[in-house]
């Protein structure tokens, strides 16, 4: 982009650049603008206007106005997409929190049921011991005893029997309390499950809305940026000192249209898994973090890998892209589902650094994006997540078990 103005370079780096898989301007000008000939100048108009200073100045003003309006249209579309993406992240965060509560309650249910079973077993053992100690009417036995010795012996048995009875009563109370606690926790667990089902449905609807908004914004942004690239080239042509230089700008746009920007893939291990980016230090691990960035969740559900801005991001496994767009504090985010209960996520992608679309099938090691620092990020890095049935797990041991080291 060395031949472009500072203003145009800003156009390339604006937040509206989503899912553009080509480097430079290649992916931005793939379609000619003949359909907009009534509103947008043709190259014939531009080259003709160079011959008259007044026409040239008018054409420059026209192009500058079109550039400004084009960026406003792109920004408006992207603003809607970001809002829907943030709503989706909020809905998904509520699902994650409900999953955490459910796991805690399930552990409590297991503990309560174990305690109730143990109390029941002890009560049964004491009942058996009581039956062995003596089940006849105590007073009758004392009346029929003929000697002081037999009466003394039975009084001792009576004392033991009384203690066993008291113990059995206490254990029975404990068993009943444990059973009641287990029942209450079971009811609470059922309530959370129902809540989780409702939250998942809301998250599903939010995801669909975010995908629609992202795709619409992507189409609009690409459309406007195609126009901007050609308009900028036309503006440069109008300002060029010679006819030959002006025609070089036109040729440059055509060359960009034919260029291919696909990046090389990453190395794939024997198990079919790949490192999600180039090597770098792990700068943030899975779990609670006391010093989280502003707006970020206290519990860090991914692994941060420190790599340079623009570094390639690779699909860690084969699968289908289920989301590619803005995701609140995650910035630009891609999620891939392998279809067998494993999902991986890639966050803080740079503007214009998403190279895949929702529904696309990707292979392990495929270059799907490039590193940025969007969202709640303090610097460029890849936030990499692994989820099992939509529940986040520690990515480091998970990937290590598949022969992949995430960093050092």
TrEMBL record:
GO terms (molecular function) for this protein are: metalloendopeptidase activity
Keywords of the record, alphabetical order, are: Coiled coil
CDD domains on file: M23_peptidase, UDM1_RNF168_RNF169-like
Residue ranges the record marks as coiled coil: 88-129, 175-248
Any one Pfam family match given in the protein's UniProt record, by short name: Peptidase_M23
Q: Which residues are in the M23ase beta-sheet core domain?
A: 299-394
Listed InterPro entries: Cell_wall_metabolism_enzyme, Dup_hybrid_motif, M23ase_b-sheet_dom, TAT_signal
Protein name, as recorded: Cell wall-binding protein
The lineage is: Bacteria, Bacillati, Actinomycetota, Actinomycetes, Micrococcales
